[in-house]
Amino acid sequence: MKKTTPCKTTMKLFLISAIYLIVFFDCHSSLTVKIEERYPRVVTPLGSIEGYFKVSSNNKRIEAYEGIPYAKPPIGELRFRVARRLSPWSGVLKAKRFGLPCLQYTQFPMDPANKVEGSEDCLYMNIYAAGRCEHHFKATMDPAELLPVIVYIHGGAFQFGSPMSFKPTYLLNKDIILVTFNYRLGPLGFLSTEDATVPGNMGLKDQVIALHWIADNIESFGGDPEKITIAGHSSGGASVHYHYLTNLTSGLFNAGISLSGTALNCWAQTEGSLMKAKKLASIVGCPSRDVQDMVECLKTRPGYQIVQAVGEFMPWLFNPFSPFGPVVEKGGSDFTFIDRSPIDIIKSGEVQDVAWITGVTSEEGLYPAADFVTSEELLADLNENWESIAPHLLDFNYTAPKAQHANISKLVKQYYLGTKPIEVSTITEIVKLLTDRLFVADSIRAARLQARGNQTPVRFYYFTYRGVHSLSELMTGNTQNFGVSHADDVAYVFDAASELFNSSTTPEDRNIRNLLINLWVSYATKGFPNIGIEWPEVSKSSDRFFHLEIGGPKEISIKDGPAFGEEKFWQGLNLSENIETNHVKAKNSEL
């Protein structure tokens, strides 16, 4: 048979076509995807969006849409104000790369010489869809084909962070939709003048707008707007809990997961907001006598300069780690997030009656202890100056009268260390102290109180599994085993710190990952966490604290003894952050 040689142009077109046909398989590995369908595309009520394909760890194809704007950029006159919703667009929006993180003063900068990163133009969302495959080019989908949605809110003490570290590699082996997004942070997200000029909570209101966007548009991506679970870690977990306390997100979700953070945690409530706003104004050269003039001046300052000033509110290392965060709004507006304290709202029973899971790890206090546990010099400084550092490290600088700071500091140190000094040999005690104060005691209290007011289940878990690696290794720069760190649990779910958690893993690590992912996905899908054993609710009346302890893939048990976290000790200090508003002065005067 005589051979023919095609022209170069024809051969080039053939090769391009062949490459596209080889790369883009459908769910069943058949070559049915057309060349013009090599990128997934959806049509939303706002306009068309084009993404790209990723694969999960099991080589399952995922539709990825990254960098979708969900609100107008909060810049210029919109700084410190509620973000504006987007108008519909024409043409096709390309969503193939992350939007920049929100401008932030970060504890873990890419460049150690510069702690400020990101952009004010940052209100972007990322959507990952698994399981749709042959359905993803349909104009509409059958309701039975719609997938449950998990919306993940990143942590970072309300000061830093972004969703870029939380990858869908393992979670989207399951048939779900995952949504992540940026929201304003630090003073740009949480500055407040304690009146109608800047009521505050701009970052939480960004989340509200994002949740409305999801409810309005997620069906276009194959997601079920009637099955939305909001989840978060640390300040993201506290954010989730805050959405139970506001009317602005009523009906927008039907389950929640708060890991290592609730609205009752001491760092999740900001005091002295006006004083902080005036101090910030002074730092950047703005007048502070008249609040409106002050805010107008702050709008003219570069965002970088405003965020750089956050360091002035952290007198010892990165502490307190959340100087700008959620506030009780004053002055009234048509978009008030909360106007009463979280504990008042919870105790009144006026929370959204939606199922809730919350939990902690056993050594949460490695954040912030990782900054100093390996430094003899810093430990000596902490020991010598404990009475002046403790109010900032333990976040009671604004919730106890200044005259009582030294006494409270002494009581805390004596309770956890007795007469022992703060040094390398007492690291375990210091980590426990920080764990209880900053995370565990208030999380347990939040679960107890919410359970009493809710008809829907409230469940609590305690994660004690230490795998081959821990995030504390990244935070300390040391491979010593300090325990189960803050964020070790969520790292398994989201492939965070993959350089650690994907290297030298064990079957036990992989089984823990599967257990946690099954817990999340079954909860989002059926409203009940499937973990192989019955997981009782937190009691509505008893002092016994029923909770799930996860000590390993085969070490899952229900505990119902006295609560851990030294809850009674911390409540006995009568710090004002979790005392009903009408009793704050009386309680404080007793100390």
Automatic annotation (TrEMBL):
PANTHER family in the cross-refs: CARBOXYLIC ESTER HYDROLASE
PROSITE patterns linked to this entry: CARBOXYLESTERASE_B_1 (PS00122), LIPASE_GDXG_HIS (PS01173)
Species of provenance: Neodiprion lecontei
Domain named Carboxylesterase type B: residues: 40-550
One GO MF term: carboxylic ester hydrolase activity
Family: Belongs to the type-B carboxylesterase/lipase family.
Signal peptide: none
Name listed for the protein in its UniProt record: Carboxylic ester hydrolase
EC number(s) reported in the record: 3.1.1.-
Superkingdom to which the source organism belongs: Eukaryota
Coiled coil: none
Pfam families membership: COesterase
Family matches, as InterPro entries: AB_hydrolase_fold (IPR029058), CarbesteraseB (IPR002018), Carboxylesterase_B_AS (IPR019826), Lipase_GDXG_HIS_AS (IPR002168)
Keywords: Disulfide bond, Glycoprotein, Hydrolase, Serine esterase
